[in-house]
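Please produce the structure of this protein holding NAP.
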Amino acid sequence: MTIKTALITGTSRAAGLGYAVARQLAELGFHVVLTARDVGRAESLAEQLRQDGYAATALWLDLTERSSMREAVDHLVRTFGHLDVLINNASTMPDFRVLSALDADLDDVRSAMQVDVLGPWELVQALRPLLDAAPAARIVNVSSLTAMQIATGLDLGANLRAPAHSIGKYMLNALNTMLARAFEGTPVLVNAVDPGETATHPERADERDRPAAESARGVVWAATLDSDGPTGGLFRDGKPLL
Ligand SMILES: NC(=O)c1ccc[n+]([C@@H]2O[C@H](COP(=O)([O-])OP(=O)(O)OC[C@H]3O[C@@H](n4cnc5c(N)ncnc54)[C@H](OP(=O)(O)O)[C@@H]3O)[C@@H](O)[C@H]2O)c1
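Below is the modeled complex.
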């Protein structure tokens, strides 16, 4: 029997969305590959999953380090020969104190571009042979409509600005559209998912934020779509946002 495999980026914290997604995919029978720039943190989370009886591996993957992507891809080629699900979950931390593009630190913008756009783009290119080798791969780009507010000009009523993060997610959505188009005519489906405001950082918890396990369900939905599922969309909890 072929093992179903899923790789999740930015899986460094037990409270993070990436780990909640990894756990739910593991519960569905996937061998989950937890990745982080600090592999020790991904390994301790993978170990928790293994102790609970699930199949989990940890790999070093820093979206600013091409060599880490190469090593991760080589490992997947040697070990599985295909990849069924890629979750582009990693992101830079938004700085909500910055309200205007005129005040944005351009180093933060570069960093958001690298981690939210160029890194996932390069990763998809590097993983393409493995995605093509799976029966029907799924790519999920974890985005945020609210975070895109300032970049889209939409008035969503949210008092969030953070221009570096906003343009990073805006470009990630554009990448999502382009990748979906690029995979047209193949079984690969590509979608962006907005998890909604989620309690992933206890130090800045807001009582309206929902638990990571609840937000993770919409990501897992996009990762496990049937062959007649959508591609190129932005969804929250399985419903289109745009
Ligand atoms: N929480 C929310 O309310 C919310 C709302 C909308 C969208 N989202 C999105 O959901 C996703 C997960 O967010 P979260 O709340 O769980 O936050 P999080 O734990 O901060 O997730 C971000 C992850 O990205 C990793 N990362 C940062 N730079 C990286 C790099 N160069 N290479 C690889 N990984 C890197 C971080 O690793 P380190 O620990 O090493 O920094 C961390 O594991 C993000 O895409 C976020 O934008 C979250």
